[in-house]
């Protein structure tokens, strides 16, 4: 029965599991070979210890709460501004250069400024997250608003459908895919921004813990927290965003099938 | 990589094109002026100058840095590390990308690793650089390589997959040597994808480089930002922030766009920029 497992091994799933295994083994070997580089076992060991000390979950929750609050604000601001830019050309020309600058600005510069202005508090992470994540969402929403079928919009205009109803029943559904795609980038950059602010100056949160261990020269811990930061974003991407995207694509797929008959 | 394209195409049917362009510029200037005046008002009436310096103070600081040649030296120090990272990424990423485009197994093998790399927050890369290299010049280059590698591999793979099978079959029938096929068929269809990928990820790689310097560096734009932070100089920080934005916009909107137009002048308009 060599055939069946060999077939599994060279098929897609087999290749992906092999890749993961190879990556882990290489990491372990490199970690064992060099003094400076932590091994996977040591990193996981640290995370277990950190959880036992009761530092892992509370600090992670602090960061998640800050990101959550900020991103809800980002969602509202980004959609409204993006919609306005797509709907009224005056607004678009007024804001497009500023949005461009907002995208060119990296989160860490905002983070440095935020720490200088607001110090050790909840304000700095939240405001910095809003500043660095909103432009991403605006750009994508704006594109979505412009992708709205213009014939439908013209019809709504001539039948005097109020802007609010147009927004709810025409613009929002056609923007949804763009919003979700933009929100994905916003989450990635917003989460990074919160972590950066916590690293540069805070007394709680995942970024603060990482910096704390950096100062004490504990590289296992530093990598452990880095791993946690990555896992959070991947879980969110896999479990939340993918599902939302599929849900909002559903009607599109359906309509394609329908019109194709 | 995000779709950071702001298209300024006119709205259908509101104003004639040339007048609309004039109005558009007017509105853009109005937006910038509004921001500047709000900033000035807050700086003059609300905050102390060490908290929020007025725009003219920042401009003066920028002038000071520029005339002494300080800016150019710092930007160059950061830029060569970024470029070194790109060269490393191309050297490693092109073979991986070709393998991914040619073999189904390679595509599946690298799939998860590419996905993983695309979801790493920049801070994790910066931390990695600190762990691996401490405070050095190699660290930033290596993490830029790690950041850019998946984009290079993905785009090369897409380019290889897009090669015209008919042309390949024809070359085989006419018994063209494989070197010639590579030069005249494969490379021309890969390059546009590679360039599109590069244009999208340049800004991110540049940001990562500066961030790594902020975490631990001795020279460069990121280090200057860190110095401004540690000496609590909001003026210097804002000045470097402005330089940073100007540089990103200059590279992304002017240099790379021009280069792309020149390189692909022989192609049909804007092909391959979809990346």
State the fourth-level CATH superfamily of chain A.
Answer: MetI-like
Average pLDDT taken over every residue of chain B: 82
**Main sheet specs of chain B:** none
Instruction: Report the top-level CATH class of the largest domain in chain B.
Output: Mainly Alpha
CATH topology of the largest domain in chain B: MetI-like fold
Distance between the termini of chain B: 10 Å
Portion in helices of chain A:
over 70%
How much helix, percentage-wise, in residues of chain B? over 70%
The whole-number mean of residue pLDDT values of chain A reads 85
Proportion in β-strands of chain A: under 5%
* Helical run tally of chain B: 10
Description:
The complex is a heterodimer of chains A (261) and B (275). Chain A is 87% helix and 0% strand. Residues 255-261 of chain A have low confidence and may be disordered. Chain A contains 11 helices and no strands. With 261 residues, chain A is an all-alpha fold. Chain A is flat. Chain A has one domain (56-251): MetI-like fold (Orthogonal Bundle). With 275 residues, chain B is mainly α. Chain B folds into 2 domains: 17-46; 63-263, MetI-like (MetI-like fold). Chain B has helices spanning 17-46, 55-67, 70-102, 104-118, 122-133, 138-161, 165-173, 178-215, 221-230, 234-263. The radius of gyration of chain B is 23 Å and the shape is globular. Chains A and B meet through helix 2, helix 5, helix 6, helix 7 and helix 9 of A and helix 1, helix 4, helix 5, helix 8 and helix 9 of B.
Task: Produce the secondary structure layout.
The complex is a heterodimer of chains A (261) and B (275).
Chain A: H1 2-10, H2 12-33, H3 40-52, H4 56-87, H5 89-104, H6 107-118, H7 123-146, H8 150-158, H9 163-200, H10 206-215, H11 219-260
Chain B: H1 17-46, H2 55-67, H3 70-102, H4 104-118, H5 122-133, H6 138-161, H7 165-173, H8 178-215, H9 221-230, H10 234-263
Short description:
The complex is a heterodimer of chains A (261) and B (275). Helix content of chain A is 87%, strand content 0%. Chain A has 261 residues and is mainly alpha-helical.
């Amino acid at each position: 029965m060599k055939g069946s497992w060999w077939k599994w091994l060279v098929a897609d799933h087999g290749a992906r599991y092999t890749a993961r295994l190879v990556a882990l083994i290489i990491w372990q070997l490199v970690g064992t070979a060099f003094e400076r580089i932590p091994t996977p076992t040591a990193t996981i060991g640290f995370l277990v210890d950190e959880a036992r000390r009761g530092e892992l979950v509370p600090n992670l929750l602090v960061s998640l709460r800050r990101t959550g609050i900020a991103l809800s604000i980002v969602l509202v601001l980004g959609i409204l501004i993006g919609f306005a830019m797509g709907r009224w050309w005056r607004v678009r020309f007024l804001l497009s250069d500023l949005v461009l600058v907002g995208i060119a600005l990296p989160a860490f510069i905002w983070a440095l400024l935020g720490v200088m202005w607001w110090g050790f508090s909840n304000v700095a992470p939240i405001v910095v997250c809003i500043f660095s994540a909103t432009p991403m969402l605006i750009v994508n929403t704006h594109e979505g608003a412009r992708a709205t079928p213009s014939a439908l919009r013209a019809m709504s205009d001539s039948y005097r459908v109020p802007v609010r109803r147009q927004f709810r029943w025409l613009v929002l559904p056609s923007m949804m895919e763009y919003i979700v795609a933009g929100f994905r980038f916003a989450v990635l950059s917003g989460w990074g921004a919160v972590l950066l602010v916590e690293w540069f100056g805070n007394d709680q949160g995942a970024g603060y813990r990482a910096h704390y261990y950096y100062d004490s020269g504990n590289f296992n811990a530093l990598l452990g927290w880095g791993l946690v930061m990555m896992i959070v974003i991947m879980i969110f991407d896999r479990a939340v965003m993918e599902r939302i995207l599929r849900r909002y694509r559903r009607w599109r797929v359906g309509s394609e099938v329908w019109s194709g008959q | 990589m995000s779709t950071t394209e702001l298209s300024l195409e006119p709205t259908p049917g509101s104003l004639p094109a040339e007048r609309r362009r004039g109005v558009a510029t007017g509105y853009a200037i109005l937006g910038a002026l509004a921001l500047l005046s709000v900033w000035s008002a807050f700086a003059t009436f609300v905050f102390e100058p060490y908290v929020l310096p007025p725009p003219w103070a920042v401009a003066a600081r920028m002038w000071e840095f520029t005339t002494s040649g300080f800016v150019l030296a710092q930007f160059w120090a950061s830029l060569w590390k970024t470029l070194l990272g790109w060269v490393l990424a191309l050297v490693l990423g092109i073979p991986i990308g070709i393998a991914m485009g040619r073999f189904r197994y390679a595509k599946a093998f690298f799939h998860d690793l590419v996905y993983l790399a695309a979801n790493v927050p920049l801070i994790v890369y910066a931390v990695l650089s600190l762990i691996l290299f401490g405070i050095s010049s190699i660290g930033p280059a290596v993490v830029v390589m790690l950041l850019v590698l998946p984009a290079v591999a993905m785009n090369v793979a897409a380019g290889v997959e897009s090669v015209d099978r008919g042309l390949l079959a024809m070359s085989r029938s006419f018994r063209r040597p494989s070197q010639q096929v590579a030069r005249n068929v494969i490379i021309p269809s890969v390059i546009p994808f590679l360039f599109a990928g590069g244009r999208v990820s340049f800004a991110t790689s540049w940001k990562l480089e500066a961030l790594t310097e902020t975490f631990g560096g001795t020279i460069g734009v990121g280090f200057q930002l860190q110095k401004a932070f540690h000496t609590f100089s909001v003026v210097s920080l804002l000045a470097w922030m402005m330089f940073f934005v100007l540089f990103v916009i200059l590279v992304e909107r002017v240099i790379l766009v021009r280069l792309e137009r020149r390189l692909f002048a022989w192609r049909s308009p804007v092909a391959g920029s979809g990346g």
